[in-house]
Amino acid sequence: MRLLKASERAARPWKNGGGVTFDVASFPEGSSLDTFAWRISIAEVAGDGPFSRFEGIDRSTAILAGEGFRLTFGDGRVEDLRLDAPALAYPGDVDAQCTLLGGPVRDLNVMTRRGAYRHRLRRVSGDCVVEGEAVLVCPRGAARITAAGRATITLHDGDALVLSSQRFHGDEPVWLVELIPV
């Protein structure tokens, strides 16, 4: 297990310059936006505008704070994403226009390169088992995570915990990112 503290992340501009993001984790470690196999980040969305395009990438997004936003995709699909709703999965290489539904938003983004990895993003609490590599992200407040045979770790707002093939128990809901090699 490896704890990734939110307080240790540096802000950087979005690929398209339209906002700010904080890298949570990526593989291979230190990879760029053009070379990652998978990437997890938390973004601050302060206004309406386009999402960055990522060719050959599958994405999932969940709202961590704020009311939410509407995504209007270039293929005509329209999806509203709100706080505490399930994550939204979509292709990163389709144009997406964001419209805020009530003020700034903080969101969790997961991206995997097609042909290298696939992922699943879901909110969990209580007992859970992960096969392979996974990352837990605390959406807000605090969550205590107890992994089998290990001490309890408390995650705070935006903190993440990297796990590998193990059982854990969380006392509060957290976002679970499962990363599956193809």
Spatial gap, N to C terminus = 23 Å
Strand content: over 45%
Helix/strand order: EEEEEEEEEEEEEEE
Q: Give the % helix.
A: under 10%
**Would you identify the regions where 5 or more consecutive residues have pLDDT less than 50?**
none
Number of strands: 15
Coarse structural class? mainly beta
Please provide a written account of the structure.
The protein is mostly beta strands and 182 residues long. It has strands at residues 2-4, 11-13, 20-27, 38-45, 49-50, 57-65, 68-73, 78-82, 88-91, 96-100, 105-113, 117-137, 142-147, 152-156, 160-181. The radius of gyration is 16 Å and the shape is globular.
Question: Could you give a quick summary of the protein structure above?
Answer:
The chain has 182 residues and is mainly β. The protein has no helices and 15 strands.
Fold topology:
Blueprint: E1 2-4, E2 11-13, E3 20-27, E4 38-45, E5 49-50, E6 57-65, E7 68-73, E8 78-82, E9 88-91, E10 96-100, E11 105-113, E12 117-137, E13 142-147, E14 152-156, E15 160-181
Antiparallel strand pairs: 1-15, 2-3, 3-4, 4-11, 5-10, 6-9, 6-11, 7-8, 7-10, 12-15, 13-14, 13-15
